[in-house]
Design a protein that fits this description.
Strand order of the largest sheet of chain A: 6-7-8-3-9-10
Number of strands of chain A: 10
Structural class of chain A: alpha/beta
Radius of gyration of chain B: 20 Å
Oligomer: heterodimer
Helix content of chain B: over 70%
Structural class of chain B: mainly alpha
Number of strands of chain B: 0
Largest sheet of chain B: none
Order of helices and strands of chain A: HEEEHEEHEHHHEHEHEEH
Strand content of chain A: 15-25%
Number of helices of chain A: 9
Largest sheet of chain A: 6 strands, mixed
Chain lengths: 263, 321
């Protein structure tokens, strides 16, 4: 009953969110193990991500890149180990509180309900309704989607939809942004646009990013970005690199059985 | 936008004010003077009937809207998912048991209808989550299969009965506005009032849920609680309406789609548009089904099925464009 009461109260704009505006400092994942059926996805792996990092997660298909994001976002249970955001275990956060720390963009979203772009953005401000108007306006101007506001989300092109979705993820308010394959299905021009917007949020708004990327081109776009970390998932562990150096190149070659072309 | 709101309100009021005077016998102001019993017909029969038709239409449409948002699919409705059929099966089983208890207007029919609709919706939901992994076409197919299952179970129950009862049940299955009394009006009004209040409180959650559970979760919606509440609201609505009027098909499919096309998909408005359009539409359908073939009274369920089936086809064909 307490939980239902909280569900209704938490939403009210009259109860400003206790965590909103606090920002994000650090997430640490300690001794994470997880298996899907008989398949061991992670075994005792550790990751720590700090404010304003930009992390790329690389690995073979089906190795658990999306699973990792889902675990952090409390969509999957049944893992062992602990995930701590700013000193609190994620189990102690309500779903809404978590959204004020991290914003997650799922992959391959297909929408059937004819909302307009503006409506989508407004409803994405669910977890911090007190400031929804301000942040919606801000996201529209950052992502330059003024001209799309009145359009239906069911009628956007792939690139337009991806920018709208990024804007809606920005609106959520969490400063740790988890993006699952933000570049898939985009042509090179659209990809560059989305990339520039991510950089803008990273540099000007000091957002922290954790991104799943799937191709070498997507990865190499980020080569010179400050605060870059690359995580390669193999054998159930995260292997951390600060740049695309020789060691990374070797592991990459071993994992994917194909070379990495760096400058 | 304002004009649309006023327009809908105006149409609803006109429908509600006109409908009691239409029917097998046309009643007007002068007939009160000539025929004293017309006043009795009006207030003991026509007015509560119109109220019930309005409430049933509004409730069915509201539950249709809830299911469409919950399953993220404009074709999901109590009827296409087999939930009204499950409620009918429950009511039928209860009726064939004979009266075991009777409090106010309730006997076990209402309880069984609500119970069966909750159970069937819950099972579809579990199947859709565990096995169909959110592929809505699969969920709809599971609903169709369950619909067949419940229909054949209904036939089985009917087969066991004597002619008189079997015919009574068959007539009940057509779906029509009967059991006309102010007690039923009070009951349905209470159920719908509570449902609307809860759904209105959950309007923002519904907005996000209709874009998919994962998306809603990522925006901070506590999906598991909201889902529970919505499933219970939706199936209680269906159960309490089916128990009294039988399964009136397709209203729950047509109305939310019309409302969405006119008033947009945001639930804050959609809820009220759905209620008013749904109520007025069933009142009109009920008046037509009484008046078109007078003195024979066509069950409104047959009438709404014919319109609904055609509409369903049009929707399937055109919704991608």
């Amino acid at each position: 009953m307490v939980k239902y009461k909280r569900l209704f109260l938490e939403r009210s704009p009259r109860f400003p969110h206790p965590l909103y505006g606090e920002g994000f400092k650090k997430i640490s994942i300690n001794n994470l193990s997880f298996s899907l059926g008989k398949k061991q996805i992670f075994s005792e792996t550790n990751v720590a991500i700090h404010k304003n990092d930009l992390c790329l997660i690389v690995g073979k298909n089906g190795i658990g890149k999306s699973t990792f994001l889902k675990i952090i976002n409390k969509q999957l249970n049944g893992y062992s180990g602990e995930i701590i955001i700013d000193g609190r275990n994620i189990n102690e956060y309500s779903v809404r509180e978590l959204a004020s720390k991290l914003a997650y963009l799922p992959q391959k979203l297909v929408f059937d309900t004819p909302y307009t772009v503006l409506e989508l953005l407004e409803m994405s401000a669910y977890s911090n309704q007190a400031e929804s108007k301000k942040i919606v306006t801000e996201s529209i101007s950052i992502f330059q989607i003024e001209y799309l506001q009145k359009k239906f989300i069911t009628q956007l092109s792939g690139g337009e939809l991806q920018r709208v979705l990024l804007a809606s993820t920005y609106v959520v308010g969490g400063e740790l942004m988890l993006l699952d394959e933000p570049f898939s299905f985009l042509d090179p021009g659209q990809r560059k646009k989305v990339f520039e917007k991510i950089l803008e949020l990273h540099e000007q708004k000091k957002r922290t990013f954790v991104m799943v990327v799937n191709s070498v081109e997507e990865m190499l776009m980020f080569e010179d970005v400050a605060g870059l970390s690359v995580y390669v998932i193999s054998d159930g562990k995260f292997k951390h690199f600060d740049s695309f150096d020789k060691k990374f190149e070797k592991l990459f070659g071993d994992v994917f059985e194909t070379g990495l072309k760096t400058k | 936008m304002m004009r649309k709101n006023i327009g809908l309100l105006f149409i609803t009021i006109v429908v509600l004010l006109l409908a009691p005077f239409l029917g097998e016998r046309y009643i007007n102001i002068f007939s009160f003077l000539q025929e004293p019993d017309s006043l009795y017909i009006l207030f003991q029969y026509r007015v509560p009937r119109i109220m019930l038709a309005f409430l049933a239409g509004a409730g069915l449409s509201l539950s249709g809207m809830i299911f469409q948002s919950l399953f993220c699919n404009v074709l999901a409705t109590p009827y296409t998912l087999g939930i009204s059929t499950a409620a009918s099966l429950g009511a039928l089983l209860a009726m064939s048991l004979g009266v075991t208890f009777n409090v106010w207007i309730f006997d076990q029919t209402v309880v069984f209808a609500i119970l069966f609709s909750v159970l069937s919706l819950w099972s579809i939901y579990l199947i859709s989550r565990r096995y169909a992994e959110g592929r809505m076409s699969d969920v709809l197919l599971v609903g169709v299969a369950l619909n067949f299952l419940f229909t054949s179970l209904i036939m089985l129950v009917q087969f066991q009965l004597d002619y008189l009862n079997a015919f009574k049940f068959m007539h009940w299955l057509f779906g029509s506005i009967r059991n006309v009394s102010y007690e039923v009006v009070i009951f349905e009004l209470t159920v719908i009032f509570i449902a609307v209040t809860l759904v209105y409180l959950l309007r923002k959650e519904l907005d996000l849920l209709s874009l998919g559970e994962e998306f809603a979760h990522s925006r901070g919606v506590n999906v598991s609680y909201v889902r529970w509440i919505l499933i219970i609201i939706g199936s209680v609505l269906i159960g309490s309406i089916v128990a009294f009027f039988g399964p009136i098909a397709f209203i729950g499919l047509i109305v939310p789609n019309i409302a969405r096309a006119i008033f947009g998909a945001v639930h804050k408005k959609l809820i009220f548009a759905t209620l008013l359009i749904g109520g007025s539409m069933l009142v009109v359908a009920d008046v037509l089904s009484r008046a078109l073939f007078a003195p024979v009274e066509l069950p409104v369920g047959i009438f709404s099925s014919v319109i609904g089936a055609i509409f369903f086809c049009i929707l399937v064909i055109t919704r991608r464009h």
